[in-house]
Amino acid sequence: MSKSAAKKIQAIRGMNDLLPSESPRWQFFEAKVRQLMHRYGFDEIRTPIVEQTALFARSIGEVTDIVEKEMYTFDDRNGDSLTLRPEGTASCVRAAMEHGLLHNQTQRLWYQGPMFRHERPQKGRYRQFHQVGVETYGFDGPDIDAEVILLSARLWKELGLLDHVTLELNSLGSSEARAAYRDKLVAYFEQHRDILDEDSQRRLTSNPLRILDSKNPAMATMLDSAPQLMDHLDDDSREHFEQLKAMLDAAGIQYVINPRLVRGLDYYCRTVFEWTTTALGSQGTICAGGRYDGLVEQLGGKPTPAVGFAMGIERLVLLLETLNLVPDEALGGCDVYLLPMDDSATVAALTLAEQLRNELPTLRLQLHCGGGSFKSRMKKADKSNAPIAVLLGEDELANNAATLKFLREEREQQQVAQTDLAATLHNLVSH
Ligand code: ATP
Ligand code: MG
């Protein structure tokens, strides 16, 4: 074999396998999300992970980090430029328009799936990562802004995260108000050009609002004194924002106003928000969103108000793990390990396992497969983490019985008639 053929192929940097030891946490989170969306009357939408490059370039904005340097773009075999989706909103708008979902109706949608950005991989930041998002269309009042924020707050509450997260809120105003503010901001930055770092110098002409988002400590004081968007809002946006805040107050949702919260994507207007945590180090934003009333029109549709958010599943699962918030029952394993004591009991064990699964649909039963000595079978039973082993041997078969062995507690083993087995296990297993 040649040397290169022998070299093991590995996963692509920043793209992770989800291993069986980790997947129960993901399933726990995903089940909560699915249930919640159902309860709030949101319907799921699934779109392809590849789209025409122009969709993202036109919606996210040519001079954003994502479009400038993070997209996985390639030519299809027929020469079309395609891109692995870096986020879900553009695809959602594309699909909703294409299938007439925005025509004289409102929509509340949610999605979940992988996103792709060529970023520097680090804890909480990957090249393939996963998001859950919601997108609503056709509602222009602040009630829907409040509703999606309340939905996210309920998720934190149900996951036990509410005490560990902070809601940051800002309003970007109308696009006209933003343009006027932008001029003021550029003038201010021009006066402080010497303090601007290289990135910010570049953004001064392309995307000056993004400079406000900079984490560079050398610029912090200068940024603190910069003119604030909040002082330049148009009247309608100000009223919208005041109403949203009153709704959140009424619902008992705490928030902090962050006048420097601008979000990295071009399409936002009015409400923007982020949920952040200090428990994850520097990748502390777990959910981000806002209003994007201009996007549908920008992509060729009729003017349609829209509000949405996306949350990063990796960061949330990491947070649940760090804070130890996934209950043991959710972490996999099984309740019962059923083992034939030797090969002569294999068929009977297989049949009994199916019978128990018929009678106890919630029982998690693992059947011993693969033969082996009695000792090695018992070792596997122990490794399964099941609290109970059900043994079938010559003696049991002769008596139409089974032996229950308790693997995690000091307790006499007991023989039970096979006809009573389901009822006995039902009483022993708590769920
Ligand atoms: P950040 O400021 O952390 O780069 P962002 O503003 O680029 O985030 P959005 O595009 O708003 O993020 O995506 C919403 C959420 O998706 C983020 O808050 C984060 O939880 C998650 N996310 C974004 N990029 C990544 C990534 N590369 N790896 C893992 N999660 C990510
Ligand atoms: Mg980013």
Keywords:
alpha+beta; Rossmann fold; eight-stranded mixed beta sheet; five-stranded mixed beta sheet; elongated; binds adenosine-5'-triphosphate; binds magnesium ion
Whole-number mean pLDDT:
94
CATH architecture of the largest domain: 2-Layer Sandwich
Widest β-sheet, arrangement of strands: 1-5-6-11-10-9-7-8
Estimated helix fraction? 25-40%
Return the structural class: alpha+beta
Beta-strand share of residues: 15-25%
What integer value in Å does the Rg equal?
Answer: 28 Å
CATH class of the largest domain: Alpha Beta
- How is the main sheet built? 8 strands, mixed
CATH superfamily of the largest domain, called what? Answer: Bira Bifunctional Protein, Domain 2
Question: What is the number of helical segments per DSSP (H or I, 4+ residues)?
Answer: 16
Show unreliable segments. Answer: none
Q: Indicate how many domains the architecture comprises.
A: 2
End-to-end CA span: 54 Å
Query: In the CATH scheme, what's the topology name of the largest domain?
Result: BirA Bifunctional Protein, domain 2
Quick one: how many beta strands? 16
Distinct small-molecule ligands in the complex: adenosine-5'-triphosphate, magnesium ion
Overall, the morphology is elongated
Task: Write structural notes for this entry.
The protein is of the alpha+beta class. It is built from 16 helices and 16 strands. The chain has two domains: 23-173 and 233-322, BirA Bifunctional Protein, domain 2 (2-Layer Sandwich), CATH 3.30.930.10; 334-428, Anticodon-binding domain (Rossmann fold). Helix content is 38%, strand content 20%. An eight-stranded mixed beta sheet has the order 1-5-6-11-10-9-7-8. Strands 13-12-14-15-16 form a five-stranded mixed beta sheet, with helices on both faces. The longest helix has 18 residues, at 142-159. Bound molecules: adenosine-5'-triphosphate (ATP) and magnesium ion. Adenosine-5'-triphosphate binds next to strand 6, strand 10, strand 11 and helix 12.
